[in-house]
Write a structure and sequence with these properties.
CATH superfamily: Mannose-Binding Protein A, subunit A
Largest sheet: 8 strands, mixed
CATH architecture: Roll
Order of helices and strands: HHEEHEHEEEEE
Mean pLDDT: 81
Signal peptide: 1-22
Radius of gyration: 16 Å
Protein name: C-type lectin domain-containing protein
Domain C-type lectin: 41-164
Keywords: Disulfide bond, Signal
Number of strands: 8
Structural class: alpha+beta
CATH class: Alpha Beta
Organism: Phyllotreta striolata
CATH topology: Mannose-Binding Protein A, Chain A
Shape: globular
Length: 174
């Protein structure tokens, strides 16, 4: 119990320090691996994982271990930027976890698990969400010719994922 408290305080201090210096806090491990799978957009730094696939829960845990969180997309412009980046880098053949889930109190209420905020912007693929087979998480991919769109899917599917960290503490919504 004490170790969890120390870890929480340590992460909070690192995050606070990052906000004071207007830099993102990202683990030393990921900082040492900054390759073409990193990009910045409007106050966020993104890391696109293409090394391994995992389920939603492990992807969320991995991002948190690195001082980041799973992807949240709050606007058409942000969705388009992610789409363009993935296409430009030839990564548009993969499926990617987002932080979106409806595992809360109501299956019709989608939230960002990383912030707890209700999702107000959606980019569903045609016929989605269809909520078949306990589809409680959202992945993004090229399902049709509509670009990077969203699909509700079981949280246990193995996907790649995108982590993000904020670099804009003034617009941080906690």
């Amino acid at each position: 119990m004490l170790s969890k408290l120390v870890l929480t305080i340590s992460f909070s201090l690192c995050f606070l320090c990052a906000c004071v210096h207007n830099e993102e806090y990202v683990s030393q491990y990921l900082q040492s691996r900054r390759t073409t799978n990193w990009f910045n957009y409007v106050g966020k730094t993104y890391y696109v994982d293409t090394v391994f696939k995992t389920n939603y829960y492990k992807a969320m845990h991995y991002c948190r271990q690195q001082g980041m969180q799973l992807l949240t997309i709050t606007s058409e412009a942000e969705n388009k930027k992610i789409e363009e980046y993935l296409k430009e880098k030839g990564l548009n053949g993969n499926r990617y976890w987002t932080a979106a889930t409806n595992l809360g109190d109501r299956p019709d209420r989608w939230v960002w698990s990383s912030t707890g905020h209700l999702i107000t912007y959606f980019k569903w693929d045609a016929g989605e969400p269809n909520n078949t087979d306990s589809e409680n998480c959202i992945e993004g991919a090229w399902f049709t010719t509509n670009g990077f769109t969203w699909n509700d899917v079981t949280c246990l599917r193995s996907n790649h994922f995108i982590c993000e960290a904020t670099t804009d503490c003034y617009n941080l919504k906690c």
